[in-house]
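Feature request, filed as a ticket because there's no other form

It would be nice if the structure record came with a short human-readable summary line next to the tokens. Right now we just get the raw output. Example of a typical job, pasted below so the devs can see what we mean:
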Amino acid sequence: MTDDSSFTDPRPRSWLDTFPWLKGAADPGAEAWWNDLIDDANVPRERLAQISELAMARLPQWTIGQIFPCLAPAFELYRMQLPARANNALRQRNYSLAGDLAGITLNTMLDWRHIGVGTVDAILQGLADAATSVPAPRVTMGDHVVHSGAKPSDQIPNWVSTLTKDLSQTATWYATIGLPNHPLLGAPLAVGVPKEITKARQRLEALSANDVLVDDEVDLDVAGLLDEVLRALDHRAAQVLSARLFADDPITLDQLGKEYGVTRERVRQIEGKARSAMLGFLRDGGLLEMVAETARTLIGTLRPLDDLITLIPALGKTVEVAGKPAWRVLDRLDDTYEIEGGWCVAPTMTAVRMVTQTMLQEQADKYGVVRLDSLNLIETSQPERLTELTASWLAHCGYTIEGDFVFTRTQSVGDYGAAVLAVAGSPLSAQEIVDRFKVERSAGSLRNAMSQDDRFERVDRDRWALSEWGMDAYAGVRSLIRERVARGGGHVNLNNLIEYITGKYSVTASSVVAYASSPPFENRDGIVRLAGADRESRKPPERTRRLFRHEGTWAYRVRITKDHLRGSGSVAPMAIASIIGLQFGQTRQLKSPLGPQVISWTSPQPSFGTIRRFLMDRDIAADTDAFLILGDDGSFAFELTRELTGDSLADALSLIGAPSTVEGAKAREVLAKAIGLQPGSPVASIIGGYRERGDSDIADLLTDLRGVLETGHQPERSTPITGIDEIMDLL
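Raw output as currently delivered:
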């Protein structure tokens, strides 16, 4: 195995030599500090912090070996002066050499359990510091010329002469008739324009790229440009990228090393350097950068891949060197978006799934049902397909589609059955309900669930309705009133209703009046009709899932993701905008101990700005639950949830952000006030309130406590027997 010394650059090292991706990952217009030479004796700590921050924000799919291509595989990790938690994290995973980390992506590292973003940051800075003492590998560029735009020519093409003549002739005409300010293109032709001027205008408007460019320039689309860039790399570097980065099934480093006669680590260095060079082409201000930026803009948050290719057809063409379509090559080079399963998403699939989940929670009725045509999730050039595409995307995310509706709560047969009835709008048998399920369930299990669930009412031997419909199994007064209202075309005279019911059944007139004047009916001036079902388009804070009211604050429970750790913003429910008085198009800054916290509403959903500084401050890991606290005084705070213990009351209080010390009647009061109910509300109303707003985890815990909360008896606290990880998995 050769050492391949031709890939080592003996020159004095700059930051860019050591971290060749820096220029491509930096923000446009940033100070070009990466061109500075590295002073081995005094490596600035702020530079190492910048390298770590850029890597987390821009290179989450890169491996540690690609991010630090100069780091020797045999470098012993204990030599880095790391905090104790960082050293323990490496030791627990049996990582002792840099080569042990080389194949791990940054995303994987951010996924390490119980490891916070501050610990990952410390490891990255330590690796960056170690990498500054190693000569940089070199990826050479061949003699192949990469085009950045149209080439200048000493000879004026024919089309330029024709264009100039037509423009001059048209301009002269308008000046002659006294309209010197009339637009030459775009505006309608003036009345009575001579046919010569009309023909000149037609030639101008018919001018196409084929008329302007020569054959080789017309053929040089984005696929051709990417092909030229790959051919401009050292041949071996281009082959490594094709075999590793762009491939469906990447070849291993060992296989490539044997093929080229070099070590696997040298192949990794070549790959990292070549990928950095390609990233530089996407940020050099040329045609490729314009195409990449256009693709990012068109994707927005979510767009079907076939629609993106419709708008930029060249993305569907094959890049010959890579043997893959241009969209695949761009996607693998650009970490600002992802393309997976026929969908383009930004910034990540995880983030867009969260946006989808939050939007569905906002739009869902009490049964978790949302109309597809009420959702504005997808960017498309074919608005007539929006409902179809929305259904396809939601199915891709694992949601259940039923006709023109999506069901967001199907985890239990009860939730699923309630959603089916809500869409059907009329009673169904248990078998008819399960026949509409997309999963196998028995009618018997559904029957048992509905018989114990206050949301359902049995209206016949085996016909079920939603309780809110007010139907009765024995043709009660409500059913009779509903029948007469329906027969009357939506309304009935109260006196006629009283006469009909009291004349046929042993019901008093006062009972008829009472039923006719209460939900689901209304009695206005002696006319009875179904009460209006107007529902606010936005849920108030009290009905918003995972949002709880405490003394002087609102607490919104979130689960920390890798996107949070990287510094990305996160979607917020509409209720957050209501709480802080935020209007569409506005941005607000809330004061916090770590500086202003931004909350904005410039896209379909409001969003929190980055909370990375809070995560760094407390070294928070992914999959940690926390509360974002909004104070009535305009303040913002970050608090972790307490670990779940298996004690139903303590866990319920933990999930709403209340102290675990409250008990008995006080606990019941806190649980009620957290969702906007009166302190003395019945326990059934409290449980129903949590379930209707989507907090089924809390509702289930309170169901276990129903007897305790109703009597005020405080049972002996049980000893926790279930691990926190197991509980969180169940939730």
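Something like this underneath would help us a lot:
The chain has 36 helices and 21 strands.
Residues 648-730 form one domain.
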